[in-house]
Amino acid sequence: GEDVEQSLFLSVREGDSSVINCTYTDSSSTYLYWYKQEPGAGLQLLTYIFSNMDMKQDQRLTVLLNKKDKHLSLRIADTQTGDSAIYFCAEKDGGYQKVTFGTGTKLQVIP
Amino acid sequence: DARVTQTPRHKVTEMGQEVTMRCQPILGHNTVFWYRQTMMQGLELLAYFRNRAPLDDSGMPKDRFSAEMPDATLATLKIQPSEPRDSAVYFCASGLDQGGGNTIYFGEGSWLTVV
Prior knowledge:
The complex is a heterodimer of chains A (111) and B (115). Chain A is mostly beta strands and 111 residues long. Chain A has strands at 4-6, 9-13, 18-24, 31-37, 43-50, 55-58, 61-66, 71-76, 85-92, 99-101, 105-110. In chain A, 0% of the residues lie in helices and 57% in strands. Chain A is globular. Chain A starts with a strand and ends with a strand. Chain B has no helices and eleven strands. Chain A binds chain B through residues 30-31, 33, 35, 41-45, 48, 50, 88, 92, 96-104, and chain B through 4, 31, 33, 35, 42-43, 45, 48, 50, 55-56, 91, 93, 95, 97, 100-109.
């Protein structure tokens, strides 16, 4: 079945860039997503990328996709304390069209 | 502001009791997902519906869990009988699958504690 993996924890200083990485196994993935979860809340969609793209930029967020290596990354420029949260990578498979999530990366921003 | 609505937000129940969680997907969305989140297992897909038909419930323990969509505006997840290991946050999510993109939007979750 599909598998999505992320590192569990990342710590950065305020103002630095954060890079959160994700790998997936499904070669038929059509869309890949990044979600943000703040404490006590649901998951909020941040951005997504279609599998035939290799980069997408949205304000402070840059998504890079290496489809050959099945590697996705999310770069947050000028990281702020409000960016502290858990970030989930997810992929949508091309068959069943279901969305599978990674384990989440907890981002800690140090003032 | 369209959003996925889940009830109850919080539930504490005794082991052996039936628990029913409800979800109102965003109007017009044709896919509904139930996820369970725990510290140990992360986010697990329990069930997935498209146009009210169950497509995948392989992640759901069949002996005690059931998921249904009585109509397009309501999805339910039932646990009977509940056990302490069912304590988790249960998220409902909905999306519009038009054969291409399927961005899914999450509710705030139902926080279940079984004692």
